[in-house]
């Protein structure tokens, strides 16, 4: 892009930005200004001052005591029965939660005990297998030692017989 194209592109982007800002902020601003002008026109067209009311605070129709809705006043006032009932309900919920947590902990403890017992069984089984293997190794070692002793005694006997045979004129060739 050359410089002229860059300037044109920037100008187009600025124009699009202004149009977008006018679109977003323009409509609420328009309605706000029209309401303001309408209020000014009403004030100038009606010269009378605002009305002053001396209305009593008592309602025109009074309801019996049981039918009135004083929920805000009831919420602000501490009713001992409701407070005690709410506290009992809260305590019941807490005790139920504690019981559930205790049951969950007992279940986890039971699972851990079962896993520990299973691990002990496996360890015992592996120990038995290791003992069998060790006793087998000891047996094999003893048999090897005996066979070495037997082989050595056979070599001695063979050497003795060979010596006697040579003395009597035997030749091994």
UniProtKB/TrEMBL annotation:
Listed Pfam families: DUF1068 (PF06364)
Residues passing through the membrane, by range: 12-31
Swiss-Prot/TrEMBL keywords: Membrane, Transmembrane, Transmembrane helix
Entry protein name: Plant/T7A14-6 protein
């Amino acid at each position: 892009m050359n410089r002229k194209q860059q300037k044109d592109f920037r100008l187009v982007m600025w124009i699009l930005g202004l149009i977008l800002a006018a679109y977003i902020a323009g409509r609420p601003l328009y309605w706000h200004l029209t309401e303001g002008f309408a209020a000014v026109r009403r004030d100038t067209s009606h010269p009378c001052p605002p009305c002053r009311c001396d209305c009593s605070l008592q309602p025109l129709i009074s309801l019996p005591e049981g039918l009135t809705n004083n929920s805000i006043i009831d919420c602000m006032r501490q009713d001992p029965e409701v407070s005690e009932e709410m506290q009992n309900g809260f305590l019941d919920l807490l005790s139920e939660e504690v019981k559930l947590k205790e049951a969950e902990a007992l279940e986890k403890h039971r699972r851990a005990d079962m896993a520990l017992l299973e691990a002990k069984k496996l360890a015992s089984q592996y120990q038995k297998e290791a003992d069998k293997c060790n006793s087998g190794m000891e047996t094999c070692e003893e048999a090897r030692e005996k066979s070495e002793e037997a082989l050595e005694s056979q070599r001695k006997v063979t050497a003795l017989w060979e010596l006697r045979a040579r003395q009597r004129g035997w030749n091994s060739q």
